[in-house]
Amino acid sequence: MERTYVMVKPDGVARGLTGKIVTRFEEKGLNLVAAKLLQIDLALAEEHYKEHASKPFFKDLISFITSGPVFAMVLEGDDAISIARKMMGATNPLEAVPGTIRADFGMHTNHNIIHGSDSPAAAEREIGLFFKSDELLTSKRADADWL
Ligand code: IDP
Ligand code: MG
């Protein structure tokens, strides 16, 4: 069993895609452990994306991710990290395979709808950045035996 941090970015929230995106993960079989709408401040944005601090797109990325509410979630399931990344699709929506979230809803790399942790270490770090431990709640899905 694994947990991952997934976030609908400001473009996805503003475009009214939050519900559709959450539904995809729920229907797949991932279990929702925590969720909230929040506006990311500068310090949290820079910490979350610190691995990209030296990249040419960093400034635009920080201003985009702080531009409006995001929908933050923790999802749980076997191989949750790689399953969520597969469902998101490639970073550039042009390269994302149809059926993935970025391919189906996104147009450009800089507005690519969704974030998901890319490793167990990143998932642990990002869950800790966005949620307190008492915000993580586990409920048994009715279909748990099949997942
Ligand atoms: P990921 O979100 O698929 O893990 P990363 O390489 O970790 O991709 O990049 C983080 C985010 O930074 C991307 O989701 C995208 O929003 C933005 N980004 C990455 N590369 C570029 C780029 O070349 N131009 C503009 N934005 C980029
Ligand atoms: Mg990444």
Structure at a glance:
The protein is 38% helix and 18% strand. With 147 residues, it is α+β, with helices and mostly antiparallel strands.
Please state the CA-atom Rg, rounded to the nearest Å.
Answer: 15 Å
Tell me, briefly, the overall form.
Answer: globular
CATH superfamily of the domain at 2-39 and 71-134: Nucleoside diphosphate kinase-like domain
Name the quaternary structure.
Answer: single chain
Subcellular location: Cytoplasm
Domain Nucleoside diphosphate kinase-like: 1-138
Cofactor: Mg(2+)
Binding site for ATP: 9, 57, 85, 91, 102, 112
Descriptive notes:
The chain is of the alpha+beta class. The protein has a domain at 2-39 and 71-134: Nucleoside diphosphate kinase-like domain (Alpha-Beta Plaits, 2-Layer Sandwich). The chain has helices at residues 10-14, 18-28, 42-48, 58-65, 80-88, 101-105, 120-130; strands spanning 2-8, 31-38, 70-77, 114-116. It has a 4-stranded antiparallel β-sheet with strand order 2-3-1-4. The radius of gyration is 15 Å and the shape is globular. The relative contact order is 0.25.
